[in-house]
Amino acid sequence: MHIDHTTLRTDHLEETKDFFIRVFDLVEGPRPISIAKAIPGHWLYWKDAPLVHLIPSSFYHDRNGNAPAEAIDHTAFFMEDYDSFKQRLIDLKIKFSPMDLPDMGERRIFLRTPTGILLETVFRGE
Predict the structure, then answer these.
(1) What is the DSSP track for 65-86?
(2) What is the mean pLDDT of residues 98-112?
């Protein structure tokens, strides 16, 4: 397991995107069709990996304004054995939301810690 990507919420999408491109030499790359249709934003790549995802503060999780505008939205962990991990969550009675991205060959599971922090798990080629 390793960290796959981090998603940042911002009210300044273009400025934040340009910052990561200038400072870290990242390049803007493609996003899965289903995500691009539903969520505005940018994916910034290092080599072939979409390392930083940017989304507008007002769009994604807390639309009532209770969350800080500039914040880490979630961190994603690259993992193996989707079915086993999904069963573990079921056994532990942890609520989760699956997301399949066939155009990227990925399956994802979103879950929250007991205190509400959003986590994502990414499984490729399963």
Answers:
(1) S-S-SSEEEEEEEE-S-HHHHH
(2) 94
Closest CA to 106 of 96, 121, 119, 93: 121
Note the helical H segments in 11-126. Answer: 13-24, 33-38, 82-91
Confirm whether pTM is higher than 0.85. Answer: no
Q: Which residues pair with 10 in a beta bridge?
A: 56
SS3 17: helix
Q: Average of pLDDT values for 46-63? A: 82
Q: Are 105 and 124 in contact (CB under 8 A)?
A: yes
Which residue's entry shows tokens 């790359």? 29
List the chain domain ranges.
2-124
Architecture of domain 2-124: Roll (3.10)
